[in-house]
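FYI - complex with alpha-D-galactopyranose, inputs then prediction.
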Amino acid sequence: MKRIIIAFCALLLATGLCAQKFPDLALTPQMGWNTWNKFAGNINEQLIKETADRMVELGLVDAGYIYLNLDDCWHGERDANGFITENKEKFPLGMKALGDYIHSKGLKFGIYSDAGRQTCACFPGSAGHEYQDALMYAKWGVDYLKYDWCFTDNTNPVGAYTLMRDALYAAGRPVLFSMCEWGTSSPWRWAKDVAHSWRSTGDIGVGFSKDIDNGTWKSLSVLSILDRQDTLRKYAGPGHWNDPDMLEVGNGMSVNEDRAHFTMWCMLAAPLILGNDLTSITKETLAIITNKDMIAVDQDSLGVQGLKLKAENGVEYWFKPLKNGDWAFVILNRNERQVNLKVDWKDFVFTDPLSSRSTEFDKAIYSYVNLWDKGVKGKTKSPMSVIVPGHDVAAYRLSL
Ligand code: GLA
């Protein structure tokens, strides 16, 4: 019986009827840039082209940020046959030419839609047009779809997201499928085979420790989002990631806060989607987002989300197992004031139940290097003294 089912599925696959998400995309968390956090609806062709140019010039493409993603507000109307068009005033050359430009820079092209009648900014949604939209995206050369959840009424999320997954697959062009359903239906429980990532919370805002009140809704601070991730780690892995939302680095927090935000997203094995203005980036912001050693923690091929091992007095101690027996270790200071700490490694001997990896501070001596200050190195044979400024981190890579 099992053989018959496998043979049947193989037949369906061969005929393209047995849809799936595109395999082998996002084996490590996706990296790129998206319009929304900084520009919201104020987007146009010139911004996208300038951003593509800057992504190359600033070394972001080399650092791994390969997706350039348009968020909401690129849309025009549907045509007489129901196909979606772009806003011709904002994008006079059209999406195909824009995609060609993005590709010519060695980048990949991302776009945004919504499973409901309308997008969150009230442009046409994909409900009832999923296959048409997927076809159009393939024609435009789209490589990434962020798919939102506004105006979905009583739609079943599993059905809606699976429908779009199948439409993308049928259109035949590999597309990284990024679900944006805000964690409402616990997508980590069901979306592993549907999407490459799923948003785990509502929207992020420019705030480190305080949520931002927008009147009818709140955008979440970095710490609020972080506090909602810890229980989700067992659901993440190569090809399917928890998405704590896009980065706000460079959008108004302090340098310390930006560094802590970026570091914690790397510890979470989160998609790293930048959202700042690249035409006016500061050297501090650039240094944060291009820290290759920190990015390597996020992109580690083991694909295990980090865990919070201990928290006391507003200080958290996070570990993330890495390939080759290494560990990333981060001390997060949630307080506004600096803390002076003594880290006795023996206090952190533990086995991670998810990866079955152990820190062996009682048996072995690790070498460590500070990932934000490469001059600081040491060994775990003796306790480490460290000062962590307020709203900041100390981050290390430990190797045997
Ligand atoms: C929702 C999403 C955001 C952004 C906006 C666009 O709020 O969660 O990330 O895409 O819609 O309208």
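DSSP finds eleven helices and 20 strands in the chain. The chain has two domains: 20-298, 307-399.
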